Write the structure tokens for this entry.
Amino acid sequence: MDLIAPLDALFLLAESREHPMHVGSLQLFEPPEDAGPDYLREFRAALLADKTVRPTFSKRPATWLGAPQMAWTQDDDVDLDYHVQRSALPGPGHVDQLLDHASTLHSALLDRHRPMWELHFVEGLADGRFALYSKMHHALVDGVSAQRLMRRTLTTDPFATELMRPWNLPRKPGPPRPGKSRLGGLIDTVTSARSSTTALMRATRTGLVRQQLTLPFEAPRTLFNVPIGGARKCAVRSWSMDRVKQVKKATGATVNDVVLAMSAGALRAYLLERNALPDKPMIAMVPMSLREEDDVDSQGVKVAALLCNLGTDIADPLERLRVVSESTRRNKEVYRSLTPAQTLAMAGVMLSPMAAMLLPGFASVATPPFNIVISNVPGSRESLYWNGSRLDATYPLSIPLDGQAVNITLTSSGDNLDFGLVGCRRTLPDLHRLLDHLEDSLAALEDAAL
Amino acid sequence: MDLIAPLDALFLLAESREHPMHVGSLQLFEPPEDAGPDYLREFRAALLADKTVRPTFSKRPATWLGAPQMAWTQDDDVDLDYHVQRSALPGPGHVDQLLDHASTLHSALLDRHRPMWELHFVEGLADGRFALYSKMHHALVDGVSAQRLMRRTLTTDPFATELMRPWNLPRKPGPPRPGKSRLGGLIDTVTSARSSTTALMRATRTGLVRQQLTLPFEAPRTLFNVPIGGARKCAVRSWSMDRVKQVKKATGATVNDVVLAMSAGALRAYLLERNALPDKPMIAMVPMSLREEDDVDSQGVKVAALLCNLGTDIADPLERLRVVSESTRRNKEVYRSLTPAQTLAMAGVMLSPMAAMLLPGFASVATPPFNIVISNVPGSRESLYWNGSRLDATYPLSIPLDGQAVNITLTSSGDNLDFGLVGCRRTLPDLHRLLDHLEDSLAALEDAAL
């Protein structure tokens, strides 16, 4: 039995039927040309043939000192048949049915009596592709690490014969361990330096408060900043990376700035449509790397939770992009002015941006500290395959929270940027409208800049 | 805001992620001959066209005096699109895939932020039929009433043009109100007579303890009598009513006795297979009507929670049937010797046999008071239709509990007896084996009796 790290325990403690604390992803695959009708069934059977399960995929919460959030125990008899499931879409098998299905899967709590992860192979898409919905508890792995982990099942070789299983990946060579361990190390470092999670959070607040001083306003209350229910709506779409890069080139902004401005325009349109646009601009929390392009010091973790003025009060798309760029630039500066311990603490929070929201008292830092988390998770530009099937898209599905009823997470995949939106179903029954607004917002940037 | 009746509140209080407290049913329908590929989509759309929702289907738990289990509030904006869902089976769409799907649906908790019911239209069965999985929280409706309610959406007319919706059924004529209200009335009567749920339970215990005195042994501990996890396995199958009736005729037993003996034989075989058959016979709790065939007094509720010696220690099928018949007969006698208040209390428990298990202290009546609940819910022998689709089967899916890891509920439907078995997935990963044992057990009774 191992003790659960304090930050991870937080995700178990904070979880309730209204607040599932798992990260998900929805991937689309094109099966190989010679795939028969039993391809997926045989794929799953081949995966399940290896019953070796690594510790991350075989540990489950144990009750220790009366609390079920304190310790992990190893499950010696993992029921892979339960963890790897098949399902199908009802007709006509279009994206609407896929999103309904993903929303249902993403709403359900993971079973705490088992290792807290699930894979779902979804067939019945009209275009002949299949989907993989995967789900891991945030106490096991944060969103970035989950993404990396699923990446490691893939290969650039369409004809590879070796089949990788997420639950039994070969150990990575070399000293830099994957995200989760890094986070663990971080927590060790920070907690030994500052002696408690409270101290860690105090440092984080200092960082956020200092950034807020550079912003023109505190975050306004919007319809997104309300308590949430347990049901989810998911919406996903891909945009060509080339379109975003052309706006970047024409304006001198970064890719991330363009993505933020595109999101800001969509949020503005969504709120305008509902007569609910606040006078003051919305503030996003954006996990972001601080490393410069020419920074070769690969050892240090230089990631930060940046606050960004989204300029949602501004109608002109280029002016909005300028405000966003200015805001991210200035808050990166603030970041660099923090003490190393503060930077380290913030980095810990960046790896799990949700952790901050969960801490008692955090909500009182400011009212509210920010309106939305927009997260750009590193992806891969290569063509990738699993069992001969080509990966077409990877949509991250993250965690809405009380006061943060919608989350936007995106990742690069091949030549695309794949957006995954997750909202509280009650607060955003028409979440899919945001997809159209994202397209309109990017088109407006193109019109203005090109 | 209405207060929740004490017995109903119990089902909300007792619910946890390990113990979902909803009753379900899985129905199979044969679509009309002229049904096109869009039949189910149009069926659902037609259902959703009427947005009038009666109180039972629009109330949800409200937080009152700090407790979310005390009061109902009406939801004025029921999101029917959420409550009525479509899904599909992966290939090859056989009964295995259907049971996997039903098991997943039956494992998930209902959302307490909404009225606590769901309907799922399931397509993709290889034989062209479709399934309807329905689910209601036990705090809304008990299993018998849920069954009756779904029955009222059906008609004997295959060409009926009026479409009935479970959430907006016309009021029933005449004074006898449907099950739920009757239960409500019962509780009112009992609680006003005895002033508290505790008193009600005290009366129930008296009844159970008196019955236990007529049994040869107390219930032994078996592998079914363990704490349970949150995941479920469902297994369903139909048997011809004629086969059961022939055994009944040849032996002079009742249909219910034959069903109990059939179940007993299956449980015996399942335990034998695992070298886990106790020396002492298993005891079933069997909700049963006490009304004689010629009893025309339709006002009184004459149902009881009978304890039955299943004779699982006996190899000979006819001898086992004899023990079962003798046991049910003697315990009906005991029942008749109870005071009217005690009978009334027991009747309340019969309408929700699970309630007894949930009460603190109940488990200490005896160790354990019984091994399994086997419930025969009244069904219909007529051919029934919904939107022109013929009902082929109705499998009740009930609630396993701590100490009662498997539940057997059956109902008559057309010319069949439809069995629905629900087990804790961890305790009974191979629940489906019980289906084969049920068949073998009935065949053994036929061989011996005919």
The interface with chain A takes residues 17-18, 37-38, 40-41, 79, 82, 85-91, 97, 100-101, 104, 107-109, 111-114, 121, 123-124, 229-231, 425-426, 429 of chain B (CB under 8 Å). The radius of gyration of chain B is 21 Å.
